[in-house]
Specification:
The structure holds two protein chains of two kinds. By secondary structure, chain A is an alpha/beta fold. Chain A has four domains: about 1-65; about 70-270, SGNH hydrolase (Rossmann fold, 3-Layer(aba) Sandwich), CATH 3.40.50.1110; about 280-420, Rossmann fold; about 465-630, Gcn5-related N-acetyltransferase (GNAT) (Aminopeptidase). Chain A is about 40% helix and about 20% strand. Chain A is globular. The model of chain A is unreliable at about 1-10 (pLDDT under 50). Helices cover about 55% and strands about 0% of the residues of chain B. Chain B is built from three helices and no strands. The two termini of chain B are about 15 Å apart. Classes of the chains: A alpha/beta, B mainly alpha. The interface between A and B is medium-sized, with 19 and 18 residues.
Chain lengths: ~625, ~80
């Protein structure tokens, strides 16, 4: 209500001048200002000037900077200067509390094939975490005639993509690094005219096909920096700069280089944190036009033949498309619940229905409080929520009181709502697994379970009524992406918070010094998917829990007990008489502080950094639960 | 704009690109500043183009011997822009 009042963007923009002033004052506030200014900068000179300010701040030793170091190698068929400055600056700004420092190694101009193929090259000596490969687009052209047989042209495009992916594989196998591969910018010249679409021999069609082959065949350690899409969206003609190529071998025009750098930084960030999980929605003038409490069911604008109503419906369709992919929906609205729920139940033009909303908060409490409630309901951190509202005042309050929550201010025109959501870049998954597709449903099932628990009489009969069954498996190659996803994003139920890349998880599979397993859990309400990951290191007669994490969705379901049963069983099989567990406290994993003692482990030693517990596998008595275990890890069958 | 005015405006571009303080004078050239290598030159030229809203042709900045000549080139390109 009252959202017509002041329509100013709620976040004041921080710019280069603010950063300069903060540097002059030697203020620690320079870091958040640098992050904000860098993220919003689109101009090449501005980004470089910000980079200069950053270097001066680092040189002056202003505290509050580096909170992560990333080793990035850049190789390619063009000059990597000054692209690397932009990448470095954009990666740094991905930090949420300081500055991500990039240790950089740059390959020589157009020497990437040799650098990757030579096992003794400096590239490998550098030991990169991430390799950014920008191949030569000048080489991506069909060499024969435009009139050659289509099969021949197709084969050459497939070969070009294969060769590049083979280079990526070599680089990954030798270094263990994740590889960011820039694909090819579309051709911008008119020649040979509209005939270009009739043959794969034209630069236009040939590059499109090579890019398609790259995208469809890239393994999970290759992350495509989609220059084709970015250039198309921007206007390809503005992405080239002939003079810069002749003078200094720049592949991208200076402004387009900023976009490429931003994309690379986004990919680097996605390797270290997951995308957002929850979309929390305001209702009045957000999901529909008008105020339900005042205008009533007949008065609100949604769907139909009215242009405003259609715009709101389009926004709901955009929301539904995210939900279908696993984004969990919540409502956060100042309304009476009865009024707020009515359109979801009865309005024929609504796309979203009550069953689509995992947590529905409609009351007169401040929205910051309701967002906390949503996080509790769904058992997720506040930092996994994105809040959307048309009212800048509400956005401002949320920014102030729950800064962990990301916000989107929709602005004054409903026509732009859908595009705003689909361009917000907060819900982009690194990969989409079939588990993700079910996630929305899983949270709704979670809500149903909570209800079952509230109506059930006692815990035992509740657990029994869930009819839970579980599959425990040693790590398998198909599960590696999901396992590494969990390892890299689980913060709460995670005893050591050790992160591992897909390559590192894969390496564990054949390593005799480790055993590991993943757990799936299903019940009568549905399949929860892969919900727990355990890695144990065998050190003689002692087994040490290296990693134990679980999805918070399955808390209080006795899954912890079954995990310990399995850890002990496998420890005995390996001849270990003692099982050691460490708890490494973080800001987020307080919920597992007393996990080991609850599971019957004895405290050995406690320091502020780590608590150590042990359990004798000889004296351990297998815990009884209500979960039926259908298969155990390392089973012969 | 006079050469002096152009050099004064170039100073702001230099301040954004160099870590050390570099005083812009007509006689100054890349040889006088340790930090000023061929790579930094790229950033410098792009910054100047942006600040003065001009576009140089291939190879011509490289042909200038010092900042005085560079400023004259800027002036030449600016006057062309004004005519167009």
């Amino acid at each position: 209500m009252g959202s017509e009042a002041v329509m100013l963007p709620p976040k004041p923009t921080v710019g280069l001048d603010d950063v300069r002033a903060l540097l002059a004052q030697r203020s620690e506030e320079i870091w958040p200002a640098l992050r904000a200014a860098t993220r919003s900068a689109t101009d090449f000179s501005e980004v470089l000037a910000l980079a200069t300010q950053r270097k001066k701040a680092q040189r002056a030793g202003i505290p509050g900077g580096t909170d992560k170091k990333i080793r990035l190698a850049m190789v390619g068929g063009s000059s990597l200067y000054p692209l690397h400055e932009l990448v470095q600056q954009m990666v740094g700004a991905q930090s949420q509390s300081g500055w991500w420092e990039t240790e950089l190694w740059k390959g020589d101009y157009d020497n990437y094939i040799a650098e990757i193929l030579d096992p003794e090259s400096e590239l490998y000596a550098f030991k990169p975490d991430v390799i950014f490969l920008v191949p030569s687009s000048q080489r991506c052209a069909y060499h024969g005639a435009m009139t050659d047989a289509r099969e021949q042209q197709q084969a050459e495009a497939a070969k070009a993509a294969e060769d590049l992916l083979a280079l990526c594989r070599t680089a990954h196998d030798r270094s263990g690094a994740e590889v960011i591969l820039a694909n090819f910018m579309p051709a911008a010249e008119f020649d040979p005219g509209p005939f270009r679409v009739r043959t794969l021999g034209s630069n236009w069609n040939f590059r499109k096909l090579v890019n398609l082959e790259l995208g469809l065949n890239a393994p999970s350690y290759v992350h495509l920096c989609d220059a084709e899409f970015l250039a198309t969206r921007r206007g390809v003609a503005n992405c080239y700069d002939a003079r810069a190529w002749f003078e200094t071998k720049q592949l991208y025009s200076s402004e387009f280089a900023v976009e490429i750098a931003r994309e690379v930084a986004g990919i680097v960030a996605s390797l270290h944190r997951s995308s957002k999980k929850v979309l929390a929605l305001d209702l009045d003038n957000t999901l529909w036009g008008g105020v339900i409490g005042d205008d009533g069911m007949a008065g609100i604008e949604i769907g139909g033949t009215h242009p405003r109503g259609e715009a709101f419906r389009q926004f709901q369709l955009a929301i539904a498309s995210l939900a279908k992919r696993g984004v969990v929906l919540a409502v956060c609205s100042k309304n009476d619940y009865k009024n707020a729920a009515e359109p979801f139940e009865k309005h024929p033009e609504m796309v979203l229905r009550l069953k689509d909303i995992a947590s529905f908060q409609a009351n007169w409490e401040p929205k910051s409080e309701n967002l906390r409630r949503i996080a509790q309901d769904l058992n997720l951190g506040l930092d996994s929520i994105v809040f959307v509202d048309d009212n800048p005042a509400e956005i401002e309050i949320v920014n102030q009181f729950v800064p962990e929550v990301e916000t989107i201010w929709l602005g004054p025109d409903p026509a732009e709502y859908a595009a705003q959501l689909l361009n917000c870049r907060l819900f982009e998954p690194r990969s989409i697994t079939s588990d993700d597709l079910q996630r929305g449903e899983q949270y709704q099932q979670q809500a149903a379970r909570v209800q079952a628990m509230n109506t059930g009489t006692d815990m035992d009969s509740y657990l029994d009524s869930l009819e839970m069954y579980s599959l425990i498996s040693e790590f398998t190659p198909v599960d590696v992406p999901r396992i590494s996803q969990l390892i890299n994003k689980s913060n709460q139920f995670n005893v050591t918070t050790r992160r591992r890349s897909e390559a590192e998880v894969e390496a564990l599979i054949g390593d005799p010094n480790f055993y590991g397993f993943s757990v799936r859990l299903a019940d009568k309400f549905g399949d929860n998917g892969l919900i727990s990951v355990v890695i144990v290191k065998v050190e003689g007669a002692t087994a040490v829990v290296d990693t134990w994490l679980m999805s918070c969705r399955v808390l209080k379901r006795q899954m912890e007990d079954e995990v310990v049963n399995e850890m002990v069983r496998l420890a005995r099989m390996r001849g270990c008489s003692t099982l050691i567990g460490h708890y490494l406290p973080t800001e987020k994993n307080g919920m597992v502080r007393d996990l080991f003692p609850r599971m019957g482990f004895e405290l050995v030693e406690e320091t502020p950094e780590q608590a150590t517990y042990q359990l004798s596998t000889e004296e351990f008595v297998t815990k009884k639960t209500h979960i039926q275990i259908d298969r155990r890890a390392y089973d012969a069958n | 704009m006079t050469q002096t005015e152009i050099l004064a405006k170039m100073q702001t571009v230099f301040d954004d690109v160099f870590l050390d303080d570099v005083k812009v004078t007509p006689e100054l050239s890349a040889n006088d500043v340790e930090e000023w290598d061929s790579l930094l030159q790229i950033s410098l030229v792009l910054g100047v183009e942006k600040a003065f809203n001009v576009r140089f042709r291939v190879g011509e900045v490289e042909a200038t011997k010092n900042l005085g000549e560079f400023a004259d080139l800027i002036q030449k390109r600016m006057s062309e822009g004004a005519k167009a």
